[in-house]
Amino acid sequence: MAVSVALASALMLMAGSSSLEDLTELDRRISAIVEPTGSKARPIDKRIRLARCPQVATIDYASETSLAVRCQPLGWRIRVNLMQLSQPAHISSGRPAPQAIVIRRGESVEFRAKGAGFSVTITAVAMENGRLGDHIRVKSPTSKTPVSARVAGKGLVDASN
What we know:
Layout lengths: L1 H17 L4 H12 L4 E3 L16 E6 L2 E6 L4 E9 L16 E3 L4 E8 L2 E9 L3 E2 L3 E5 L7 E7 L2 E3 L3
Parallel strand pairs: 6-11
Antiparallel strand pairs: 1-4, 2-3, 3-4, 5-8, 6-7, 7-9, 9-10, 10-11
């Protein structure tokens, strides 16, 4: 009986490790996204224990300086900070040049709206390309009606007053 309990415990431990998200693989996927832009992502803290996502976790820009890694089915989300490796000559404020397209049609964006006494942040889909400061149409997956929002950064739109 003691052998079967020990065996069951060992199997649970082995199964437990495979039921966790592979953070090294997430780091590799994040690097493949940000390195072509001249940035580098800080490694994900290996002490974090995330349940393995049944789908491929999505990776989107949360702001100009961070990415959001999300598992929609399980509801977990982590933010990964970026480090700028090289600064192009045309960028003096750390922001993309005004003529550069920072949001592409069909891209997942973070939609923010703030007003007197409220603040809302949701994930939406860009319906058109946008440059920093442009107003573009975005649509929430749960809404049929697109709304207009100002492009505030890579993957970020704002509809605040």
